[in-house]
Amino acid sequence: MSSLFIAFCFAKTVTGNNKFITGTALYRISSFANDFREFTYKGFACNSKTLVFPFEKNFIVFMVGRYIALVQTVPISCSKGDHILVPEDLPDSSSLLIYTASVVPNSYIPDNRGGCESFIMARRLYNSVTNNKNIDLKVIVSYTNEHNCYNSMKNNLKKTVLSVIGHLIS
């Protein structure tokens, strides 16, 4: 099962060698304000045709990763001349999470004022940066059920593995 984090990020620190690249980056957690979240990433360069493109500190990159292990980066913009990029230069695009996992039993929450129904998906992860195993990650999936078009979903949650894509809310 694959879980991907997709976002435009501002590279704060970048270190590495011909085998890997690691560092810290910021992504915008709200398109309405200058709110940012910092995370640590690590990407492995297996050969000369690696998917992890080289980039430098203060680059804005499009990152796709399995949580904090990079799968692909594409440099979008870099500092030139007198203009030094800062986190506020990040595009106003929300981070996305593509998540495949089983649904936590009895986690369905009916619409109770907010206009959304919810359930929880969970799986165990491996953090390749810290080598921690069996990290419990739960994701709350909320959706609107206008015109009751998803009524059958709640009846099938307990026997379903789903793939969802949505805004990553920190």
What would you note in describing this structure?
By secondary structure, this protein is mainly beta. The chain folds into two domains: 3-80, OB fold (Dihydrolipoamide Acetyltransferase, E2P); 97-167, no CATH class. The chain is built from one helix and nine strands; from the N terminus they run E-E-E-E-E-E-E-E-H-E. The chain has one helix at residues 151-156, and strands at residues 3-16, 20-28, 36-44, 60-66, 69-77, 96-103, 117-127, 132-143, 161-167. Strands 1, 2, 3, 4, 5, 6, 7, 8 and 9 form a nine-stranded antiparallel sheet that branches. Strand 2 (20-28) and strand 3 (36-44) form a beta hairpin. The longest helix has 6 residues, at 151-156. The chain is globular, with a radius of gyration of 18 Å. The two termini are 22 Å apart. The relative contact order is 0.21.
Question: Notable features of this structure?
Answer:
170 residues, OB fold (Dihydrolipoamide Acetyltransferase, E2P), 2 domains, nine-stranded antiparallel beta sheet, 9 strands
Count the strands?
Answer: 9
For the record, the CATH architecture of the largest domain stands as Beta Barrel
- Indicate the overall shape: globular
Q: Provide the succession of SSEs.
A: EEEEEEEEHE
**What is the name of the CATH topology of the largest domain?**
OB fold (Dihydrolipoamide Acetyltransferase, E2P)
Please give the share of residues in helix: under 10%
The secondary-structure class comes to mainly beta
Q: Report the C-alpha radius of gyration, rounded.
A: 18 Å
- Domains (count): 2
In terms of DSSP E residues, the strand content is over 45%
Number of helices: 1
Low-confidence parts lasting 5 or more residues at pLDDT below 50?
Answer: none
Distance between the termini: 22 Å
Average pLDDT, rounded to a whole number, is 77
CATH hierarchy, class of the largest domain = Mainly Beta
How would you classify the quaternary structure? single chain
